[in-house]
Write a structure and sequence with these properties.
This protein is mainly α. The protein is about 75% helix and about 0% strand.
C-alpha cells in the first residue's frame, strides 16, 4: 500500500472497535426483533402489554442507533464519534456499578445481582480497551478536526 491509501484508513485498533460496535448493534437488532415478535405474539389477544416490554425495546433500539452511528462516524474519523465512543465506554459501566451498589435483593430467586456482576466483569475490559485505543496521541491525530470550507 502506498502512503496515501494508508493515511485514509483508521488504525487496526480503531477498526476493531468499529467491528465490535457493529456486532453489538447486530446483537441488539436480533434481540429487538425477537422481543417484538415474542412480545406481541404472547400478548396479541390482550390489549395491554407489560410496561417493561416498552422500556426494554426502547433501550435496544437506542443501542442499535447509537452503536451504528458511532461506528460509522469512527470509520469516517469524526471527532464527535470518538467522543461518543468514549461516552459509550463510560456511561454503561458507571450505570451498572451504580445499580450494583444500590440494588436490594428481592426474596426468592433473583438473578439480577449475578447479572450485574457479570456485566461489570464484561464492561471493565471493554471500557479500558476503548479508552486506551481512543486516547492515544496517534489515534487522536487521525480524528483531528477538518478546516471549515470558506
Amino acid at each position: 500500500m502506498n502512503n496515501e491509501s494508508s493515511a485514509k484508513l483508521p488504525t487496526l485498533a480503531v477498526i476493531a472497535v468499529v467491528v465490535f460496535q457493529f456486532l453489538v448493534a447486530a446483537l441488539a437488532l436480533i434481540l429487538f426483533a425477537r422481543g417484538v415478535r415474542i412480545g406481541f405474539a404472547e400478548h396479541s389477544a390482550e390489549n395491554t402489554h407489560p410496561p417493561d416490554v416498552w422500556y426494554a425495546l426502547g433501550e435496544l433500539l437506542a443501542t442499535i442507533v447509537v452503536c451504528a452511528v458511532s461506528a460509522t462516524g469512527l470509520l469516517m474519523r469524526r471527532m464527535w464519534a470518538r467522543w461518543l465512543t468514549l461516552i459509550l465506554a463510560t456511561v454503561p459501566l458507571c450505570a451498572v456499578v451504580m445499580e450494583k451498589a444500590v440494588y436490594k435483593r428481592h426474596p426468592g430467586f433473583d438473578f439480577t445481582p449475578v447479572f450485574l456482576e457479570y456485566a461489570i466483569w464484561a464492561l471493565v475490559p471493554i471500557s479500558l480497551w476503548w479508552w486506551l485505543v481512543l486516547t492515544r496521541k496517534r489515534v487522536k491525530a487521525q480524528f483531528g478536526s477538518l478546516p471549515l470550507p470558506r
